[in-house]
Each structure stands twice: as C-alpha cells, then as structure tokens.
Amino acid sequence: MTRRIEVTFDYRCPFARNAHEAVVNADQRGGDIEWVYRAFSLDQSHVEEGGTPVWERPARERGTGVLALEYGIAVRDAFSDHFLEAHLALFAARHDKGRKLHDRDVLHDTLRTVGLDPDAVADEVASGRPLATLRAEHHDAVDTYDVFGVPTFIENGEATFVRFMERNRIDDLDRMLELLSWSRLNEFKRTRLPR
User: Fold this and answer.
1) In terms of DSSP bridges, do strands 33-39 and 3-9 run parallel, antiparallel, or are they unpaired?
2) What is the Cα–Cα distance from 142 to 88, expressed in whole angstroms?
3) Confidence of residue 79 (pLDDT cuts 50, 70, 90)
4) What is the DSSP letter of 144?
5) Inter-CA distances, 67 with 63, 128, 161, Å
6) Is the pLDDT of residue 195 over 80?
7) Which of 141, 66, 147, 57 is nearest to 101 (CA)?
8) For residues 136 and 191, what is the distance between their CA atoms, to the nearest angstrom?
9) φ, ψ for residue 158 (rounded to 5)?
10) What pLDDT is recorded for position 111?
C-alpha cells in the first residue's frame, strides 16, 4: 500500500533544506511513498495579525522568500520533469552559495544549471498562477493542519513539524517515517544540541 506524505518547504529554511535533500533522494530511489511537495511562506507566517498578506502586496514588498517559492511552484507545476533538480538547486543557491533568492538573476542562473529555460519559468510566474497556488497551499496548511513552519510532514490528516540537524540523511528520514503515525507523542525536543 502506497503512503502519501506531503512535506512543506520554504527555500529560506536550513532545516527544510536538510529534510528536502533526504526526501528528494528517497523519492528518486522509489518505494512505497508518494511524496507531495507543498510550498509554505515563512514571510507570510511572520505577518502581524491584521497586516496585509504577502500575496496582496506589490512584488517588491512581499518579503525575501516569496519570489523563490513562485519559481519553485512554477517549475513543479509547469516543468515537473525538472522539479526535483531545481528544488535542490534552489536550496543550494541559498544555503551552500549564500545567494539572494529574491534576485531574479540568481533564480535564472540557478534554473539554467538544471537545464531549464528561465524565461519560460518567468513567464509562468508572471501568469500569477504560482502566487495563487502559494496562497492556497499556505492557507490550506495553516487552516487545516495548524502548520507554523517548515518542514512539516502531513500524512493521514496529521501534521508533524521536524528539524533534522544533518543534511541528506535518508536514515534519519526513514527513522522519522517510522514515528510519523505515532500520534500520542506530541513533542520530543533536546534542550541542548550535542555539538
């Protein structure tokens, strides 16, 4: 029986990067899990109550992560054959190379590295569909599952926020997947990191 697991992302978050590297590798190895990648805006989650939502602001005032999410959604939905590569490349641009993902030139350079035509992706972003999708996915995560951050794993109506401390550890992902359905455990958090 195939499991369906949604996992939220925002390219700005290092913990999302750690998790998504493992998820993408697990997805590529195949198996009995259907992975669904869902965008979540950390910029929106920091808007004060009553403030203008990021998707209703002019593009230059949406925050530092929204444009990258729009590009990621555009690739996921319109150029899906390149999504996993582009997804990892966007995380790498931010966290390995220290590049600014609110800069279109950085996004275009990143997409070129995985064989995408950045102008075609930019056209999809300009259509407004990715921004509308971001809004819908973010609201669904918050309203349905009380999601507050990334990465959050959603399965069978339950959402679990997870922080992996190391990158691309499929063994950590596998261990977490064993616990995902254990709903009687609410929180398990180390008070100090053994570093």
Assistant:
1) parallel
2) 25
3) very high
4) H
5) 8, 11, 24
6) no
7) 66
8) 35
9) -115, 140
10) 98
